[in-house]
Specification:
It is an enzyme of class 2 (transferase). The chain has 397 residues and is an alpha+beta fold. Helices cover 40% and strands 21% of the residues. The structure holds magnesium ion. The site of magnesium ion has 5 residues, from strand 1.
């Protein structure tokens, strides 16, 4: 009889990651209700709450002002992005010892495919334990681990195991594991859908699956079948490891005629940024560093880089940075023959758009989503930013 190969996937999710990093940096914060979030007059949203703060009902994405009402003693820390990035790198580096198949899905989450590592590392559960203990002992952070036969099951398992837990859903037990969970435990079923289903008296995954699929489709539209599959624990998506992942993304344009027209040059710059941001979003990644390249007509070439404050895939954030960089870099009164932009320090874009959800950026994000749909159907130049209309279509890819 052919032996079936069962893949073991691990979902590693750091517990209250931003707060935990702050607690390493400042041990006085340990064991206290702490939130990471901007000052209330700025970006007043909780990005992360310690488990002590969660006891008061404080949750991520809640306004800081509300969190302070719920727990007047809560300690509000503004957030240290560079440190989160640093600790995230340490965790990912640690995970890569166990398998090269590590897919980082957000700053504090990754999937590992353990297929073929049993001889080296032993039983999947003991690997999970080693990872959890190693992250604690070597880095000082708590992690929760879900173990399952696919990414979806591993993710739901880790959601249930939080904090500091390990849950392993054995192969063939997926359906019974899922059936008693509330429907909102299924990734992709958000508050709106949950409310809609609850109104139809559907609370659990089992109840959801007992409705005929055509009725589900009637209630939930096109997304229904996808959710129906998920509710059955079906997920064929693969673990995309880092070496399949681009290190940088760039685009440059050599002009037909060298130019010193800064109005035209900034329009080209804007066009390049638009194009690269579209590519980022199509690959579901965000960038942290932007590099500008200028080549003068005498072939002198200069490059200048700048780090963004946050990871982003939005031209509304990247273009102002690129423009400032350009204006400070283009100093000679000599025409340019080439202009280029490259984006690096790329990170997968999961569901979370930025560290501090900002209403203005969320609006742009939604708008871009629609623009991307139009471009996928009719081509990149089917819809252009008015600022980039000066750019000849011959530059388009
Ligand atoms: Mg987490």
């Amino acid at each position: 009889m052919k032996k079936e190969i069962i893949s073991y996937l691990l979902h590693v999710d750091m517990d209250s990651f931003f707060v935990s990093v702050e607690q390493i940096l400042n041990p006085a914060l340990r064991g206290k209700p702490v939130i990471v979030g901007g000052e209330s007059h700025q970006r007043g949203v909780v990005a992360c709450a310690s488990y002590e703060a969660r006891k008061y009902g404080i949750r991520a994405a809640m306004p800081v002002a509300k969190a302070k009402r719920l727990c007047p003693d809560v300690i509000c820390v503004p957030g240290t992005w560079s440190q989160y990035s640093y600790y995230s790198g340490k965790v990912m580096h640690f995970l890569q010892q166990f398998t090269p198949a590590v897919e980082q899905v957000s700053i504090d989450e990754a999937y590992l495919n353990l297929l073929g590592t049993e001889r080296l590392w032993g039983h999947p559960y003991s690997v999970a334990l080693k990872i959890q203990q190693g992250i604690k002992n070597e880095i000082g952070l708590d992690a929760t681990i879900g173990l399952g036969s696919n990414k979806l099951i591993a993710k739901i398992a880790s959601d249930i195991a939080k904090p500091k837990g390990i849950v392993w859903i054995l192969p063939e037990y997926e359906t019974s594991f899922l059936s008693h969970l509330p429907i909102e435990a299924i990734p992709g079923i958000g508050p709106k859908t949950t409310q809609m289903l609850n109104e139809l008296n559907i609370q659990t995954v089992q109840q959801f699956l007992s409705i005929p699929s055509h009725l589900v489709k009637q209630a939930l539209g096109n997304n229904a079948l996808f959710l129906y599959h998920k509710a059955q624990g079906i997920d064929y998506s693969m673990v995309r490891s880092e070496h399949e992942f681009p290190k940088s993304m760039g685009r440059e344009i050599t002009f037909h005629n060298d130019t010193e027209d800064t109005y035209y040059l900034t329009a080209v710059l804007h066009y390049l940024i638009e194009e690269l941001c579209t590519r980022l979003r199509n690959h579901q990644i965000m960038c942290h560093t932007l590099t500008l390249k200028l080549r003068y007509s005498d072939f002198l070439t200069i490059t200048k880089s700048c780090q963004l404050k946050y990871f982003s895939d939005l031209s509304v954030e990247l273009f102002p940075v690129a423009k400032t960089l350009f204006l400070s870099a283009y100093t000679r009164r000599v025409k340019l023959r080439l202009i280029g932009i490259s984006l690096s320090q790329l990170m997968p874009h999961n569901y979370q758009h930025s560290l501090f959800p900002d209403e203005h950026l969320l609006k742009w994000s939604r708008l871009n989503h629609h623009v991307d749909q139009i471009r996928k159907k009719y081509g990149f130049t089917s819809i252009l930013n008015a600022d980039t209309l000066a750019v000849p279509l011959s530059f388009s890819t």
